Amino acid sequence: MFSSAPKKKNTNATPLRDHGGGAAAAAANLFHSPATPQSRQRSSFIFNENAVPNRPSTGTPAPWAPRLSVLARVPQVDRSGKGDDTDPIKPVFVAEFPQLVRDEQATLLHKRVSVEGLGSGGIDKDTSLAWITCGNRVFIWSYLSPASGMRCVVLEIPSKVLEDSDTGKSDAGSWLLCVVNCDDTSKGMNKVPKHCSSAAVIMCNWKTRAVIYWPDIYSESHKPVISVASSDELETVLTPDRRSSFGKQRRQSKVGGSLNGLHTFNSLIASVVPGCKFVCVALACSSNGELWQFHCGPDGIRRRKVYENVTRSPQHGGESGQNVSNKWYPRSLTWRFPHHSPKESNRQFFLLTDHEIQCFKVELSSDMHVSKLWSQEIVGTDAEVGIKKDLAGQKKIWPLDVQVDDHGKVITILVVTLCNDRISSSSYMQYSILTLQYKSGLDSETTNDRILEKKSPMEVIIPKARYEDEDFLFSMRLRVGGKPSGSTVVISGDGTATVSHYHRNLTRLYKFDLPYDAGKVLDASVLPSADDYEEGAWVVLTEKAGIWAIPEKAVILGGVEPPERSLSRKGSSNERSAQEEIRNLTVAGNFAPRRASSEAWGTGDRQRAVLSGVARRTAQDEESEALLNLLFNDFLSSGQVDRALEKLETSGSFQRDGETNVFVRTSKSIIDTLAKHWTTTRGAEILAMAVVSTQLLEKQQKHQKFLQFLALSKCHEELCSRQRHALQIILEHGEKLSAMIQLRELQNMISQNRSASVNSLGSSSDIQMSGALWDLIQLVGERAQRNTVLLMDRDNAEVFYSKVSDLEDFFYCLDAEIEYVIRPEHPFEIQFQRACELSNACVTIITTCLNYKNENHLWYPPPEGLTPWYCQPVVRKGIWSGASVLLRLLSEISGLDKSSKLDLYSHLEALAEVLLEAYSGAVTAKIECGEEHKGLLNEYWERRDALLESLYQQVKEFEATYKDSIEGSEGMTGDAILKIMSHLLSIAKRHGCYKVMWTICCDVNDSELLRNIMHESLGPDGGFSYYVFKKLHESRQFSELLRLGEEFPEELSVFLKEHSDLLWLHDLFLHQYSSASETLHELALAQNVQSTSVAEEGEQEYLKLNLKLSDRKNLLYLSKIAAFAAGRDAGTQVKVDRIEADLKILKLQEQVMEGFRSIKDNQLVEHQLHHPEDLIKLCLEGEGREFSLWAFDVFAWTSASFRKVYRRLLEDCWRKAASQDDWSKLHDSYIVEGWSDEETLQNLKSTILFQASSRCYGPGAATFEEGFDQVLPLRQENMETPGDTSSSVEAILMQHKDFPVAGKLMLMAIMLGCEEGGDTTYEEGPSPME
């Protein structure tokens, strides 16, 4: 796995001596492997008889040519045609080394200095900086920068360090290096790379422990700070005979290994210290179990040992146990969170030992205190938490490297196990990946021994691999975080990088290596992803061949199953039966077992296994797409369709909708074709070439031919009825292509205008490569390259103008990189110019698409439920970002001249128009699909109001300027304002911005304009008319409001339903007398409270009803008149009776409140309207005899339902009436005086019981609806339930204290009142018929 396949044996090479055992053959094969870099030991055997140092045995020409020839012999990505023609399993060339690196390598070759295997290098994932050492120099550059703008920093390793180290200047591979991002603006979890303007570098020699610190590599001075190990420290590092053995150990050291008896640094990490400029802290672990800390600053480096022994290996004996003192451990250091926030005062890091993983915390303060948080065993007897040891056949376990994901949640460990085959007694090695995660609910700083748990079972990369020595094993490094998701990369010391991908219960390996003399792989990293929370493609740094990327598709399609390299398959974990093989091919048949390695890049190897297990649906799609391309090409040549529809239906071309439809894929391939001849030029020359426009026009013509083919073959009708979404995407391809052509013309026009405005000293290249649009094109191209690494060898501008279907990325980058393209620190004029340039580009794209759609509207499918591409959230966000910048600039334009202000206004107006059109389309599509759209609608309204109100505010400022500058009458000024506001008013009308429409009409004082807009802007809820009515009502312009009701009667009726104080007037105007009567009746009985229809604060006093009792009576009189005007019928009489009853209740309230005048406020008497229940309770509280009778009058004029509900209150009224007379005294007079029947009648007539009975039950009793007898009968014998003691007036009287004595008189009073009440008159109180 980790070594390339053996090539033809070289008979001229001198073989190594056999060291015995099964490793001899492996060592021999390894020696003859052309992809395995030769170590310093091996080179002595090969080159001792060769006059040319480092000359490979393969016959490569002499290496002192001015430039290394390896890139010429490594086949490049196919650049001859479409990107789809590129072999998907090949790596992709990303970037060449800077010329400074090439020159230094050539210089070393001229000097015949051996550089093979001596250099080191790496890629910093956070800053996207690559570095490589050549001799005594370190070269650092951003590998994502274009070649024209690449800046390479050269750092000189001080000669003092080299002299003290006694290692020689050629020993450049003995350095550990960390790049520290000191730029706060480029930090964070966002994976999109930012330009790093400040970075520090810390280098540590893993042999001599010398430390070099550059505080800022981008400063003018690269003066480093040096720290060398003290003699006391070296005493603990070297053997007792260190003086004599050190040089010998250096010469005998192997690649990636440590010296015998020399305790070296195995790993180095570093971090910036927040709040301290140019101050960093570095941590290194030593193979003697020590943990060292280096406090690096411009003034010096303070080094101290923070832990003495961190290994603490278990005290086991035997072969199966780990050594108590292991020269390779502790092995690896890594930060828990790779992305550090400047606000955090401490950082956690992991340390990997031979049997456990430990977690520490370092305080990023002045003392830099390091404390241990927890440790957990990963190699022990419990397989649930890690690796179970002491198994049968297991001899030794090596944890090699540890890595953490970007979120600090998943810990990945590379593990190698030495095993013994029990049958053949041969030794083999098993490579595995152990994945751990934090247990849920446990804090990261807890001291729990079991803080980690397995995320998934152990993933075996190679079940049986050949035996390797420890030097080779500990040269391996692990990388995580690339595509495919969950994949890992293992870098070995022999110069290869292997991607391991575990998918569908199968592990597949993809091996990246290089031709023999191309050098080895130095490091691997991950390309910054175009989207957050998404992995990027793997990228590798080579020793001589530049930087390469491994596409995701290459890993998926080119991965192979783990190879079997032992002599016997027995006991192997990948030994399966034939049935299992068939089942695996059925489940995971999308991936063919292929080997993707650069071994066959230039050999013409076509012996790879074909795609034998691809799913049927995918094969059918490919067959349909091939048939469609064939038919379309026949149409282009002959103009005939030849039963194309029938053939395509048979092939299943109409079974898929959306992006996967074969017609959509063909359309996309047409518009995304990469030009064959653009790669001859780069940068601004691409934009200057007419071939760009020519290529776009050719694509447009071919796409139009494709649409003609769809129409003639009747495929258009089929798509329109069955796959509307697919047809829309095809036509949107035409929209984007037209927009791209117009954008190209805009770029030309911007360049021409800029070239005309600058002097002749400015070069055309500088003119082409300046401006906001150019910068944004570069960003879009970079994003496309990060999404598709097959485009990494193309120029950014070429990628942008080729990938037409990804035009949405233009708006994505506009939103994500707006602060980079338009920097707030730039002068206002520059910001103004760049913002207008981007605004013009956005407007050009959207308007071109709208024009294309209008011109070809007959081609489009029914739009119901389909969202246009320019209505998608990513497009809206991009346009809004540009509009936000213009809004900010609009508030700062006081220093601009009049023409610049008008220019800025026009750009913002045009941008607002296309943005609001996008929102309108998105809302419409959601409504048609029945999806939730409230949030989108609120966002639409909020941004609409912000844009149009800001625009109108600027118009008002123009108005003030015009009033000062325009000479003439007021009318001329008004005409000028109307001319400026006409387009703004049309936008406001189209998108329902009622506030701006109302303000414009008020400012110009044109009632005719207002009425016209109200007619044009009618909606389901009244539209603009409702808003106008509301504003007039708020300003108390009631007469204007009612006059508009003459022209908008229905709309005003809807509005006035919440304003009954005016609704009856509008009803009278409409001759709706019945409705007016009801409104007046309700208004007369309404309480004096604030209207509930208005919820805003600060409302005016007119919203409160403040009616007097006299006003209410007048309203009732008007209601009665309106009822009679509506016509006399049965319903009218009922309404009139109710009105009269309410009038009587109001008069009764006046009388009742008059009796309480002495204790009640006069204003309260006049304005407060009492509920009948409250009014009755007031009567019960009154002391006069008339209050008792008024209570019965209130009951009489309410309703039958009221009397039923408040029957208990009615009973209280009878109790009060009975207590108004002294019945015991009347009874004594009745007995003593001997009253006759006539005298008894006359004496009882004066009692309240008699009068109440007469008013409620007498022949002349007047009540509204049913009488009192339906609620409370007079006599007990008339009740249906005689057992109820409180269900009649008689039962109530029986509870009176005088009833035992005068009960006969009391019953006589209510009975006589019921019978004789009609012939009597009352001396007190109003008549019931009054």
UniProtKB/TrEMBL annotation:
Keyword Disulfide bond in annotation: no
Alphabetized Pfam families for the sequence: Nucleoporin_C, Nucleoporin_N
UniProt keyword Nucleus, yes or no: yes
Family matches, as InterPro entries: Nucleoporin_Nup133/Nup155_C (IPR007187), Nucleoporin_Nup133/Nup155_N (IPR014908), Nup133-like (IPR037624), WD40/YVTN_repeat-like_dom_sf (IPR015943)
Region span, Disordered: 1-41
Compositionally biased residues, Basic residues: 1-10
Domain of life, source organism: Eukaryota
Alphabetical GO biological process terms: poly(A)+ mRNA export from nucleus; protein import into nucleus; transcription-dependent tethering of RNA polymerase II gene DNA at nuclear periphery
Main localization of the protein described in the UniProt heading: nucleus
Domain Nucleoporin Nup133/Nup155-like N-terminal: 85-548
Location(s), subcellular: Nucleus envelope
Keywords, comma-separated and alphabetical: mRNA transport, Nucleus, Protein transport, Translocation, Transport
Gene Ontology cellular component terms for the protein in this record: nuclear pore outer ring
Domain Nucleoporin Nup133/Nup155-like C-terminal: 1021-1157
A molecular function GO annotation: structural constituent of nuclear pore
Family as reported in the entry's similarity comment: Belongs to the nucleoporin Nup133 family.
Protein name per UniProt: Nucleoporin Nup133/Nup155-like N-terminal domain-containing protein
Source species: Arachis hypogaea
